[in-house]
UniProtKB/TrEMBL annotation:
Protein name in the entry: V-type proton ATPase subunit a
Highest taxon above the source species: Eukaryota
Signal peptide positions (record): 1-22
Record membrane topology: Multi-pass membrane protein
GO BP, sorted A to Z: vacuolar acidification
Annotated stretches, region: Disordered: 665-698
Main location: membrane
Length: 828
C-alpha cells in the first residue's frame, strides 16, 4: 500500500541466464510474476527465433487439446478444474505428453468412428425391420391372388413379348419431409405404372448422427417392367432413400425379420461395449487433459519469453532485459539462484541505466482496485507521478452522494454492496458469467462507499424516500409565533399560508443540530431555500476540489526537481484561482456568518458584488459586506490578471535561459571531463524534467530546445487553465442540479404512487388490499428509476468531475502499466 500515493520505483535489469537453466529460471519468474521482459529481438521475424520449433510443438498440442475438449463436451461431460499448483513441465516431458495425447486422440477417433459406423448399421437394420413389419404386403396382396379375374389384364397385349411380365417390388425408408415429393415424382415419372404404399414407423428411431429420436416413412412400391424399375431406383437414390430387399412370400419375410431382430440385438450389445470403452477413454481425457492444458500453456509462455532474449557471443548463456520493481530485486536474485543451482552456474542479475521512461507499477487489493480502475480509465499515470486514486476513495463517493443524497436510497445501495462483499469468496459468485453482474461485483467496494456516503448526505438533506424525519426538535416554534402575533380564527381563515418571523422572540430557537430542519419540508418556499443552499454548497466544494488538485501538482514538481514550476506555474495558478473564485467562497461563508435574521431583508447580493468585481464598479442599491470591499476586489482582479503573463511567459523564458547557460558551459574546453562525468546525473534528472521532455528523456545537454514548441505548449496550458477555472467552477453546479433533480423525482414518485395509494385505502377501507400492489409498484419504480437510472447518471457526472475538473490540474496520464510475465494471466 506504500505505492498507492506514487508508483513504485522500477528499474531496468539485465539477466544472464545459463543455457542449461534458462528454461527453469524463466519458468520460476513466471510463477512469481516480478518482471516484464523487453524484446531484444524486435527486428527478428517470429519464424527465425531460437525456440520457434518448441512454440510450434506447443501449438500443435493445443490443437489436439481442443479436439479432445470438444469430444468431451460432445459427450455431455465437463472438464474439472486442475487441482493444486502445476509448474511448467521440463522440456523432456514435452515428448511424453505429445505421445500420450496423440495416442488418446487416435483412440478417441477410432472408437468414435466405430461407434458411428455401428450406429449407422443398427439404424439400417431397424429401418429394414420396420419396412418388413409395417404390413405393406397385405395392401399389395391383390396383385398375387390366384383369381383368374384378377390375373386378366384390362387390355390384352397385342404381341407375345409381354406375356411373361411379372410384378417386382422396391421397399425402403425415406425422411418424412421428402415422402410427399418422392411419391409425386414417382407417379409422374412412371406415368402411374406402379402401386406405392407409404407409412410412418410406429416407433421413433434414433438418428445415428444427432442421436435425437426421429420418425421415418417406409414405402413399398410394386411395378411392372425393368425400365420402370430402373427409374424407381434412380429416383430413390436421388432422394437418399434406404432401399432394402423385400421377399414376395410371407414366410420368407417373416424369417428375414427374425434374422434382422437377432442381428440388431447382437449389434446393440457390441455398441454398448463400444460406448463403455468410449466412456473409459473420455474418463482418461477428463483426468489428464486439465493439467496438461495448464502445463503446455505455461511451457509455451516460457518459450515465447525466451524468444525475446538474445544469445551471447559464446552461446553459453541467454541475455534478457526486464523491468522490475526495486523492492522485488532481492526476491528476483534469490529465485534465479535457486533455479540455476542445478546447472552449476548461477544466473546473474544487475541494474543497467536506461533513458526510456519506466512503466508504472501501483499495487492494488480488493478494496482499491475499483478506484484505481477509475483513474486508469482516464489514463495510466506517468512514472512516479502523483496517483489520484487514494484521494478518489473519498472524493468520488462523496461527490456522488452530494447528487444522490437520500437515506433510504443510500441504505438500499449500501445493503446491496454489503451482500456482494460478504459473498465475495463464494465460487458461484466469482464465476458468474453475466456481464452486468460482473460489473457490479467488480465495483462492490465502490458501491459500498457510495451508499454509505449517500446515507450521510441524506441525513444532511433530511430526506428519506423524499420524506423528512424529525430526529431532533425543530429550531422553529409555531406556538410562539401564534401567541405573539395574535392569530385569530378570522385571520387564519383569510390567510391559508402563514409566515414565521425569526425576528419575533421565541420563534427561532437556534440552528438544527444536524442537517436541514424538518420544518422546511412543510414550507412553500422549501425549493427556493434548497436552491440557494445547494448552489452555494456546490461552488464551495468545486473550488476546494480544484484547489486541492493544484496543490497536488506541487508534489509532482518537488519529486521531479522542477523547482521553477513552483514559482512560475503553481503559485500563479493558486493566486488566479483563489483570488477570483476563492474570494467568491469567502463571500459566501462571510455572508452566512455575518448576516443575521434581523438584517436578512437588506442583505447584499453576492452575485452582484462578484459581477461588479470584474467591472470595477459599484451598485448604490447593493451595500458592501465589509469596509474596503471595493479595494480588496480591485486588488484581487489586478493580481489575478497579472498572473496570466507570468503563466504564459515564465516557464519558456526560464527554459531558454537555462538552455543558454548549458550552451556556454559546453563551449568551455576545460570542462569537457566534468561534462562526461555528469552524464548519468543529467539523464536521471531528465526523467523528471519538463513534460515535453519526459516523453523522450536523455541528456539535457543533448536536447535541442525548440522555443516555439515550448511557447505553444505553455500558451495552450495557460488558456486551458484560465478558461477552465471559469468553466470548471460552473461545471460543479451539476452537484446542485442533480441533487435537486433527484429530490424532486423522489417527491413526484411518492406523491403519484404512495400518497395516492394511502388516500385510496382510507376512502375505500381496504388499506391492506390496496397497499400491497401500490407498495410493490413504488418499490419497483424506486429501484429502476431512482437507484439504477439516477444512480448511473450521478456516477457519470462524478466521473466527469474527477477526470476533467480535478485530475487535469496535476495528472497527465501519459504512462503505461508494468505488465509482468506471470502465469496467473495465462491460467485465466
Amino acid at each position: 500500500m506504500g505505492s498507492m500515493f506514487r508508483s513504485e520505483e522500477v528499474v531496468l535489469v539485465q539477466l544472464f541466464l545459463p543455457t542449461a537453466a534458462a528454461y527453469t529460471c524463466v519458468s520460476q519468474l513466471g510463477e512469481l510474476g516480478l518482471v516484464e521482459f523487453r524484446d531484444l529481438n524486435a527486428s527478428v521475424s517470429a519464424f527465425q527465433r531460437r525456440f520457434v520449433v518448441d512454440v510450434r510443438r506447443c501449438e500443435e498440442l493445443e490443437k489436439t487439446f481442443t479436439f479432445l475438449q470438444e469430444e468431451v463436451r460432445r459427450a455431455g461431460l465437463a472438464l474439472p478444474p486442475p487441482e493444486g499448483v502445476l509448474l511448467a513441465p521440463p522440456p523432456r516431458d514435452l515428448l511424453r505428453i505429445q505421445e500420450e495425447t496423440d495416442r488418446l486422440a487416435q483412440e478417441l477417433r477410432d472408437v468414435r468412428g466405430n461407434q458411428q459406423a455401428l450406429r449407422a448399421q443398427l439404424h439400417q437394420l431397424q429401418l429394414h425391420s420396420a419396412v418388413l413389419g409395417q404390413g405393406h404386403g397385405s395392401q399389395l396382396a391383390a396383385t398375387h391372388t390366384d383369381s383368374p379375374l384378377e390375373r386378366t389384364p384390362l387390355l390384352q397385349s397385342p404381341g407375345g413379348l409381354h406375356q411373361d411380365l411379372r410384378v417386382n417390388f422396391v421397399a425402403g425408408a425415406v425422411e418424412p419431409h421428402k415422402a410427399a415429393a418422392l411419391e409425386r415424382l414417382l407417379w409422374r415419372a412412371c406415368r402411374g405404372f406402379l402401386i406405392a404404399s407409404f407409412r410412418e414407423t410406429e416407433q421413433q428411431l434414433e438418428d445415428p448422427v444427432t442421436g435425437e429420436p426421429a420418425t421415418w416413412m417406409t414405402f413399398l412400391i410394386s411395378y411392372w417392367g425393368e425400365q420402370i424399375g430402373q427409374k424407381i431406383r434412380k429416383i430413390t437414390d436421388c432422394f437418399h432413400c434406404y432401399v432394402f430387399p423385400f421377399a414376395e412370400q410371407e414366410e420368407a419375410r417373416h424369417g428375414a425379420l427374425q434374422q434382422l431382430q437377432q442381428q440388431s440385438h447382437e449389434l446393440q450389445e457390441v455398441l454398448g461395449e463400444t460406448e463403455r470403452f468410449l466412456s473409459q477413454v473420455l474418463g482418461r481425457v477428463q483426468r489428464l487433459l486439465p493439467p496438461w492444458q495448464v502445463q503446455i500453456r505455461k511451457m509455451k509462455a516460457v518459450y515465447l519469453a525466451l524468444n525475446q532474449c538474445s544469445v551471447s557471443t559464446t552461446h553459453k548463456c541467454l541475455i534478457a532485459e526486464a523491468w522490475c520493481a526495486t523492492q522485488d530485486l532481492p526476491t528476483l536474485q534469490q529465485a534465479l539462484q535457486d533455479s540455476s543451482s542445478e546447472a552449476g552456474v548461477s544466473a546473474v542479475v544487475h541494474r543497467i541505466p536506461c533513458r526510456d521512461m519506466p512503466p508504472t507499477l501501483i499495487r492494488t487489493n480488493r478494496f482499491t482496485a475499483s478506484f484505481q480502475g477509475i483513474v486508469d480509465a482516464y489514463g495510466v499515470g506517468r512514472y512516479q507521478e502523483v496517483n489520484p486514486a487514494p484521494y478518489t476513495i473519498i472524493t468520488f463517493p462523496f461527490l456522488f452522494a452530494v447528487m444522490f443524497g437520500d437515506v433510504g436510497h443510500g441504505l438500499l445501495m449500501f445493503l446491496f454492496a454489503l451482500a456482494m462483499v460478504l459473498a465475495e469468496n463464494r465460487p458461484a459468485v466469482k464465476t458468474a458469467q453475466n456481464e452486468i453482474w460482473q460489473t457490479f461485483f467488480g465495483g462492490r467496494y465502490l458501491l459500498l462507499l457510495m451508499g454509505l456516503f449517500s446515507v450521510y448526505t441524506g441525513f444532511i438533506y433530511n430526506e428519506c424516500f423524499s420524506r423528512a424525519t424529525a430526529i431532533f426538535p425543530s429550531g422553529w416554534s409555531v406556538a410562539a409565533m401564534a401567541n405573539q402575533s395574535g392569530w385569530s380564527d378570522a385571520f387564519l381563515a383569510q390567510h391559508p399560508l402563514l409566515a414565521l418571523d425569526p425576528n419575533v422572540t421565541g420563534v427561532f430557537l437556534g440552528p438544527y443540530p444536524f442537517g436541514i430542519d424538518p420544518i422546511w419540508s412543510l414550507a412553500v418556499n422549501h425549493l427556493s431555500f434548497l436552491n440557494s443552499f445547494k448552489m452555494k454548497m456546490s461552488v464551495i466544494l468545486g473550488v476546494t476540489h480544484m484547489t486541492f488538485g493544484v496543490v497536488l501538482g506541487v508534489f509532482n514538481h518537488l519529486h521531479f526537481g522542477q523547482w521553477h514550476r513552483l514559482l512560475l506555474e503553481t503559485l500563479p495558478e493558486l493566486v488566479f484561482l483563489l483570488g477570483l473564485f476563492g474570494y467568491l467562497v469567502f463571500l459566501i461563508a462571510y455572508k452566512w456568518l455575518r448576516i443575521m435574521a434581523a438584517g436578512a431583508a437588506s442583505a447584499p447580493s453576492i452575485l452582484i458584488h462578484f459581477i461588479n468585481m470584474f467591472l470595477f464598479s459599484r451598485s448604490p442599491t447593493n451595500q458592501p459586506l465589509f469596509p474596503g470591499q471595493e479595494v480588496v476586489q480591485s486588488t484581487l482582479v489586478v493580481l489575478a490578471l497579472a498572473m496570466v503573463p507570468v503563466l504564459l511567459l515564465g516557464t519558456p523564458l526560464f527554459l531558454r535561459w537555462q538552455h543558454r547557460r548549458h550552451s556556454r558551459r559546453r563551449r568551455q574546453p576545460n570542462e569537457d571531463k566534468t561534462g562526461l562525468l555528469d552524464v548519468p546525473e543529467a539523464s536521471m534528472a531528465s526523467q523528471g524534467s519538463d513534460e515535453e521532455k519526459a516523453e523522450s528523456p536523455g541528456d539535457q545537454e543533448e536536447v535541442e530546445l525548440v522555443l516555439s514548441e515550448v511557447f505553444m505548449h505553455q500558451a495552450i496550458h495557460t488558456i486551458e487553465f484560465c478558461l477552465g477555472c471559469i468553466s470548471n467552477t460552473a461545471s460543479y453546479l451539476r452537484l446542485w442540479a442533480l441533487s435537486l433533480a433527484h429530490a424532486q423525482l423522489s417527491e413526484v414518485l411518492w406523491a403519484m404512487v404512495m400518497r395516492m395509494g394511502l388516500s385510496m385505502g382510507r376512502e375505500m377501507g381496504v388499506v391492506a388490499v390496496v397497499l400491497v400492489p401500490i407498495f410493490a409498484a413504488f418499490a419497483v419504480m424506486t429501484v429502476a428509476i431512482l437507484l439504477v437510472m439516477e444512480g448511473l447518471s450521478a456516477f457519470l457526472h462524478a466521473l466527469r468531475l474527477h477526470w476533467v475538473e480535478f485530475q487535469n490540474k496535476f495528472y497527465s496520464g501519459t504512462g503505461y502499466k508494468l505488465s509482468p510475465f506471470a502465469f496467473a494471466v495465462e491460467d485465466e
